[in-house]
Amino acid sequence: MTKQLSFSKEEQDIRSEFREMMSQAESTEDVKKFFFQTVRELLNRISDKEWDIEFRRDVNLDLDRGEGWTLSDRLLDQNGLRELLDESDLDNILDRLAEKAWNRYRHLEKHPEKTEQKIYPKEPRRF
Fold it and tell me: Which tens digit of pLDDT belongs to each residue from 78-97?
């Protein structure tokens, strides 16, 4: 029987900040950016190695499927990440983070008013 690594402590450490970021997301672009930032933070917490991670290139919500997440081969080949995903609960943690991100993403897609207010603020009322 192989030993599986657990990063549940690290997940607990980032969970509340991630939840706060998702609640503050005003656009689907914010959701993608906050998901990326959280995954980057998680990788930094579970490893003391340097990570070369780029937004939109290496960590994304899986827009083709409309759920889940994707990591680039370039990132998977860094610091033994591919093996780490196989030998730990990291993929389950990423699934849970992505689920929360997708819930917010879908909500913002269905209710674009918040994004539109950010882009086109209402004129101040003049008396």
Answer: 999 999 999 999 999 999 99
pLDDT tens-digit profile of 30-76?
Answer: 999 999 999 999 999 999 999 999 999 999 999 999 999 999 999 99
Q: Specify whether the CB–CB gap between 63 and 35 falls below 8 A.
A: no
What is the CB-side half-sphere exposure of residue 35 using CA atoms within 13 A?
A: 31
Cα→Cα distances 21→26, 49, 76, 91, 104, Å = 10, 25, 25, 21, 10
Q: State the chain's maximal CA–CA distance in angstroms.
A: 75
Two structure tokens written together for 25: 């997301």
Bridge partners for 7 per DSSP: none
Distance separating alpha carbons of residues 66 and 106, to the nearest angstrom: 9
